[in-house]
Amino acid sequence: MNRRGWTGVLLLFVTALLGGLVDHTTPVRAQRNPPGGLDEATLRSYGTRHVLPLAGGTGKPGFLRVTNVGWTATHVIAVELAPSGSPRCDVGTESTRIKAVTCHKSLGRWATVELALSGQDSSVMLFSLDAAQVPDPCGAFQAVRSGQTTLAAWERETHAAKRGEPMAVLLVDQQGTQRLTLVGQTGLPSNVLGQRMEAVRGLAAVPSAPQGQRLRVFNGGANCNPVALRQGSANAKAADCRPAQAQNLDVGGYDARDLRPSLGDQPGGLTLSRSARDKPPAADLAVGLEMSEAKGGYRLAAPISQAATGAPLAFPLAVGPMTEQASELFITNLHITATVKIAVTMYDGNGAVQRLYNDPEALCAGATRRYDIQALAGTIPLTTGRGGGQQRPPYLSLRAEATSAELPDFGPLAGTMIIRAAEGIIAYAGMTLPAEGQVFRPRIDKVDGNSALVAVVPDVKKNWGPDRVSTYLSIMNLQAPHPENIVTIDFYDEAGNLVLNGVERAINPVAFLDTQEAIKRGVNNGGATPTPGAVETLPDGFRGTALIRGQRIPGTLLGVVAVEHRTNGVPSPRTPLMLAGPLSISGSVLLPSWADPSLPTPTARPRVTATPGGMTPGPGTGTPSRPTPGAGTGTPIRPGPTTSATAVEPTPTAPVPTQTPAGGRVLLPALLTGSTLSGGQ
Questions:
Q1: Number of C-alpha atoms within 13 angstroms, CB side, residue 510?
Q2: pLDDT at 225 over 60
Q3: Residue 67 in contact with residue 457, Cβ under 8 Å?
Q4: Distance CA 556, CA 663 (A)
Q5: How far apart are CA 624 and CA 483, in angstroms?
Q6: Are 93 and 480 in contact (CB under 8 A)?
Q7: Separation of alpha carbons 525 and 605, rounded Å
Q8: What digits encode the pLDDT tens for the residues 87-116?
Q9: Which residues are bridge partners to 656 per DSSP?
Q10: Omega of the bond prior to 87 within 30 degrees of 0, cis?
Q11: How many CB atoms lie within 10 A of CB 42?
Q12: 627-653: string of b/e by CB count within 10 Å (b at 16+)?
């Protein structure tokens, strides 16, 4: 063997030896930082950067409400960016498109600040900066505003090194008497979550683009974001499924594109998928839709979904304490190729399954279907208050899931619930588990360096202002339907003071609470028998933030719909709670919550596990409080290699029942036409 050959053998030997040493000292697998093993610095970046695809454009100045969800002071920077209008990715420097920069110094723990917007049509990005490291937030951003550096470089060199605390962000624009709201979207880059699937943001149904509609795609990252706009057929039969038509778009860094699809008179599926040519972080892409109608307007933002897998969609409110309601559900199949079957489970306000509807007609890839919820639900029973005495108007919540013989798991869905009532019109996106949920470890409240995701609801009110505005909260478990039966709500005012904590509600699988009824009776010892104590309530004129978390099972992920309404008297057995118009709606955001480091370590509560096949036993009982199936229920078609043999129900064609409040009268992405509804279209 020549000299070169011996040298090669020696190098191989040394490499193998070093590999063995490394393997026995610090495993290579541990160095790869797998999902679930992210470093704390990466986890703490969650919620420190938000994107909102559209603001302004209504003719009236709007504002942002920003809440510091952390425990130390933080700076806030809001940047309004105008769309470039360029169809290409090379849109030029961001400084020429900055409409306004608004800064707030040292926002205290759990405090809220209201930042005025310019009123111009724009997209918004928000950043938090560590108040201890940055003397002047606007000074720290001046280099970007003057064009000396790019926004991408500033994010990489300044914000990444000096992040502040997590924020909850709510954008509010006024359109007549209607409030148009958007919750800031945040997230971790998909590459750190170990996801290889193509990410999708989907708008469930968009008919022809009438005057007053805006549909916007915003790229909140520095890289070109190629996307495919897919328009699926509205009502095609499964045998006639064809590939959804795709229009390829390139959205430049920190740029926005306005889209006006025209799909005729029928609603058509509209999904926005990221191209395989490039995969920038999924958290950078945002989609927003604004719509004006005769009874008011609404604004929607599409949550991120996965093109290959999905999870059931939760709709905490489908029928509520309103008059002359019409509730319409829009569902879009986000999968690129697979045809899916839709199952909708409906729960009444008492926790019973009102109906399980298995749609007999499969939904094509990219297609959308519209359902008349009240025609499907039938007569909904009155809601019985705690103790079995006080009765309230009928209530309904939904869970929608998609299965397919072509898929090993649930199919990915987008969905929108739209409720029209005499008090106004509201619409919100179906809620689902965030991809980040898998990397935030569940924990019992203690100072251990780990965080859990909690639901944060901004701008909660009780009898606030001259119109005495209050907030109605509808809370739903985003995970398995029945693993959690107690939620705890804490209320912080705008100054960050804890005004009322430990308000409990049973959730099976939904809990609902009007702030007028936010009452804490006594002290609850870990969900056991309550001990006597003072009765506490929210004070009149309250405005602030609600933090909602699972009490009995750590790490429960919750979705919340918040309906703002005028107070319609004090609820009592003779005057049941009814929402009064005009209504507006917003949602919750899941944010990390570390324990307050200034407090002593609390005594750990015993971990409670779910009862096999049902819910955790209720407080003081040994019996799981599981909903009782109602008439017309069945078993949803579950994933599997073959089509289920479960019988399906025909689509109802009965008209929407007309009922009185006392007699049992009887929610991103969608727009409506004036066509007559049926049970499923």
A1: 28
A2: yes
A3: no
A4: 35
A5: 10
A6: no
A7: 9
A8: 777 766 678 889 999 999 999 999 999 999
A9: none
A10: no
A11: 13
A12: beebebbbebbebeeeebeeeebebbe
464 DSSP assignment: B
Least confident of 260-274, 334-348, 591-605, 660-674: 660-674
SS3 at position 543: strand
In DSSP notation, 275-291 reads: -TT----GGGEEEEEEE
Which pair of tokens denotes residue 241?
């499924």
Rounded Cα gap, residues 640 and 418, in angstroms: 32
Q: Give the predicted TM-score (pTM) of the model.
A: 0.81
> What is the Cα–Cα distance from 221 to 528, expressed in whole angstroms?
48
Average pLDDT of the residues in 435-439: 75
- The conformation of residue 216, written as its DSSP 8-state character, comes to E
Q: How far apart are CA 107 and CA 138, in angstroms?
A: 14
Q: Taking Cα atoms as reference points, which of 538, 460, 458 lies closest to residue 499?
A: 538
Q: Which pLDDT does position 378 carry in this prediction?
A: 94
Place of tokens 């800031």: 184
Burial of 261 (0-12, 13-18, 19+ CB in 10 A): middle
Q: What is the pLDDT of residue 143?
A: 93
Collect all residues with Cβ–Cβ distance below 8 Å to 441 and sequence separation of at least 6: 36, 450, 451, 452, 555
**Checking DSSP bridges between strand 531-537 and strand 304-306, what pairing results, if any?**
unpaired
Residue 84 has pLDDT above 50, yes or no: yes
Long-range CB contact pairs, 464-467, < 8 A, 24+: 464/541, 464/542, 464/543, 467/566
Question: What are 475's strand-pairing partners?
Answer: 511, 560
End-to-end CA distance of the chain: 78
> What are the residues whose beta carbons fall under 8 Å from the beta carbon of 365, sequence distance 6 or more?
232, 241, 243, 244, 333, 335, 336, 337, 338, 339
Residue recorded with tokens 């430990």? 502
Q: What is the mean pLDDT of residues 394-420?
A: 90
User: Considering only CA atoms, which of 220, 219, 201 is closest in space to residue 273?
Assistant: 201
Please report the pLDDT score of residue 15 as a whole number.
41
For residues 662 and 681, give the distance between their C-alpha atoms in angstroms, rounded to a whole number: 31
Helix then strand then coil, % of the chain, to nearest 5: 10, 40, 50
pLDDT by residue (tens digit) across 570-626?
Answer: 666 666 788 998 899 999 999 988 777 777 655 444 444 443 333 333 333 333 333
Provide the edge-to-edge strand list for the sheet that holds 98-107: 49-55, 122-130, 74-81, 98-107
Strands 167-175 and 178-183: what pairing? antiparallel
pLDDT at 677 over 60: no
Side by side, which strands form the sheet with 326-333? 368-372, 326-333, 413-421, 424-429
CA gap 639, 132 in Å, rounded:
51
Please state whether the peptide bond connecting residue 627 to the residue before it is cis, i.e. omega within 30 degrees of 0.
no
Window from 28-42, 302-316, 527-541, 639-653 with minimum mean pLDDT? 639-653
- Burial (CB < 10 A; 0-12, 13-18, 19+), residue 404, is buried
What tokens does 515 get?
Answer: 């702030």
